[in-house]
Design brief:
Blueprint lengths: L1 E8 L9 E9 L4 E8 L8 H7 L3 H4 L5 H12 L3 E4 L2 H14 L8 E3 H8 L8 H8 L9 H18 L4 H6 L14 H5 L6 E6 L5 E7 L2 H7 L8 H8 L3 E6 L3 H15 L14 E7 L5 E7 L8 E3 L2 H15 L31 H18 L3 E6 L5 E8 L2 E9 L7 H5 L2 E3 L4 H13 L4 E3 L3
Parallel strand pairs: 1-4, 4-5
Antiparallel strand pairs: 1-2, 2-3, 6-7, 6-8, 9-10, 9-11, 12-13, 12-16, 13-14, 14-15
Helix pairs in contact: 5-7, 12-16
Length: 455
């Protein structure tokens, strides 16, 4: 038995919107045997553009029952049946959410007539309900009203049942099938082709533009996890509707996938990625020459297109580093912006400090340059050699003087102890502190996978 459902709502996601009309056609696999239809008071204003689309006004629903009052009838009609709708995840998320608010836990198998239409009737110009019905000669005098759309969907479903010579409906209902969970516009073959390997995946919209980039330890499992559950939020519902294609890159390790994801988000700036877009180096150590010619070190916020000596995760890390340089190389705390009062300079050099003009520009700048050189020399240069995408290669990430250089894949037989030769096999990429930190943490956990180069 099938419950063919259509609803009209006040907006696009269940958690902040109400149902204004619901219609249910109970279908026995041959024909509709029972119908239910009701206007619903959403207990909130219906936006003007929604009223213009559906014809349902605030006045029409003012005396209609709230969903809580029809919830029992809706639940008992749908419970134990296969939930069918055109773009089923939208209708199901609304009905399930509002049933839950009324105390009913709806758990149904689902079928989407958009997905089934693409499989059973391939090659049509459009699979929207209106255009599909027009192409197939299905009358719908009440478009964008729950009753009219539910009846049209029921007639479409009957046609699909009768035309399903390849058993697509039966396959979609099989236990373990992902068909009913997928977004309406995503071909199942895109999911089927994904390997159980680490990698980076890309969701594309209707025009092929990348709208989301993600990393995975197992591509198939991670991509499938996006489509489980019934989150009714606006972002998720819009996100799922816009997914039309999945592509991917296999990576040798999860670490390579982490790094590539960060690189690709910065390169493509996808609409639905948020967290890594916001990541920037927080603070940096800079050097500049003042009007008297003295080199001055300072910790400041990261600035785009600047050339910092060293990057830090926090202001405290930056000041700790600068204090060590002041102590080890007898630098002036006033010229380094550590001491900001008018007291006598607290440097080791005391009365001969550069801030008083006693120490010459040449002598002081020599100490600053020595500090900078030793700081850079102390930054490690190493490669991480790890598993590859196939059995006859290794993955390789190179960090040069503490900064991420790039990555790639090398032969088992390649000796990675020559940094210049190694660079010929790697692709350089822009880095940031996020990438530097995850690579550094990985190297600390797996020192046996490191190849350290002499400074």
């Amino acid at each position: 038995m099938y419950a063919i459902v259509d609803i009209e709502t006040t907006g696009g996601h269940a958690s902040a919107n109400g149902i204004t009309e619901i219609a249910i056609c109970i279908h026995d696999g041959k024909k509709v045997i029972k119908r239910f239809q009701s206007l619903v008071n959403p207990l909130r204003e219906i936006p003007v553009y929604i009223s213009a689309l559906t014809g349902i006004t605030n006045e029409m629903v003012q005396k209609a029952p709230p969903f809580e009052d029809v919830a029992a009838d809706v639940y008992h009609l749908i419970h134990g049946k296969i939930f069918v709708a055109h773009n089923v995840n939208f209708d199901y998320s609304f009905v399930r959410y509002h049933l839950a608010a009324a105390g009913y836990d709806l758990q149904c198998n689902k079928l989407c007539t958009v997905r089934l239409g693409r499989k059973i009737l391939p090659g049509l110009p459009s699979y929207s309900l209106g255009r599909l019905c027009k192409h197939l000669g299905i009358d719908n005098e009440s478009r964008h009203r729950a009753g009219g759309d539910a009846e049209a969907t029921a007639e479409l479903f009957t046609l699909l049942l009768n035309s399903d010579s390849d058993g697509h409906i039966k396959m979609a209902l099989k236990q373990g099938s992902k068909e009913q969970l997928l977004p309406p516009n995503l071909p199942k073959k895109d999911l089927d082709q994904l390997p159980y390997m680490p990698g980076v995946y890309y969701f594309h919209d209707q025009k092929g533009k990348v709208i989301y980039v993600g990393k995975a330890k197992s591509l198939k499992k991670r991509v499938s996890s996006h489509f489980t559950g019934n989150n009714p939020g606006l972002q998720r519902q819009e996100f799922l509707r816009n997914i039309h294609q999945v592509t991917y890159q296999v990576c040798g390790t999860e670490l390579i996938a982490f790094v590539l994801e960060a690189i690709e988000i910065k390169r493509l700036w996808p609409k639905y990625n948020r967290s890594l877009k916001r990541f920037e180096n927080a603070y940096c150590l800079y050097a500049f020459e003042d009007q008297r010619g003295y080199l001055r070190l300072a910790v400041d916020k990261y600035r785009k297109y600047s050339d910092p000596i060293y990057t830090c995760n926090s202001l405290l890390d930056g000041y700790n580093l600068l204090n060590k340089l002041i102590e080890n190389f007898e630098l002036c705390p006033k010229l380094c912006f550590i001491q900001k009062n008018q007291d006598l300079c607290a440097s080791v050099a005391g009365s001969s400090c550069a801030c008083e003009g006693v120490e010459s520009v040449e002598d002081y700048n020599r100490k600053v340059n020595t500090a900078i050189d030793q700081l850079k020399q102390a930054l490690p240069t190493y490669a991480i050699r790890d598993e590859g995408r196939t059995g006859d290669e290794h993955s390789c990430i190179l960090v040069e003087k503490g900064q991420f250089y790039g990555m790639g894949y090398i032969s088992h037989y390649f000796d990675a102890d020559n940094i210049q030769q190694l660079k010929n096999y790697l692709t350089p990429y822009p880095g940031n502190d996020y990438i530097k930190n995850i690579v550094s943490n990985y190297a600390s956990r797996y020192p046996d996978r490191m190849v350290v180069f002499a400074s």
